[in-house]
Amino acid sequence: MKTRRKRKILKEDDLKKHVLGFYNAGREPAHRFKSWENCFIYFHWLKAHPNSIARNIDLACLHLGFYLASWGMYRGKSFLLKKSFQVHRKCIKELMKRKYSILWNSDVSSLSNPKSVKLLLTLITRLRKTYDHKMTDTLVTKILLGTMGCVPAYDRYFTEGCKQWNVKPISNFNEQSLLSLIRFYQTNCKMFSQINKQIDRRSIIPYPSMKLLDMFFWSVGSNRNYQKLENAAA
What we know:
Helix content is about 60%, strand content about 0%. By secondary structure, the protein is an all-alpha fold. The termini are far apart.
């Protein structure tokens, strides 16, 4: 007979340790954590100025490419190593289409809408076709996190963090996985909101809910301890 795992209860101190610790670690201008923020800011500026997209497409490619490189997408056997920065042009043009506007910086409540979920899955399918190579869940979700901010990045540390908190299924990005993450956030929404307010007081941009989830589970999964940094900045 299988025994059911005891449900873990998220404590505010644990959330602060991981989310605020992660955030504070990236306050140094040259820290690689900062590359997400730089990319996110640029793409939201570009989205707000649609008439500027055509003449800034190469700069957008550079922003996206450097952010992806900072987060390990240009190492090992990555197909991106064999391409120039312009490999991202088709992807960016797809992201900027007006029909995806509701996905930009979406909060958990809007992403729980079935229409939003369907649109997001459609976008992911189309993004995979913009590269002349098979895309991993890690790559496509990192692109979305760095531009729209509507999903966490499904890398090794993030999925390991999800396992530790019994957030399932997490092996692949799909509708079930997304809804599981949304339920986790909604269960702990008051604590996440409080953490977000603390970040808002220090940041020049609002952090989307999916970025907070990404920071928490990545920190848990990587087994990093940023408590000293968090205490220093509190």
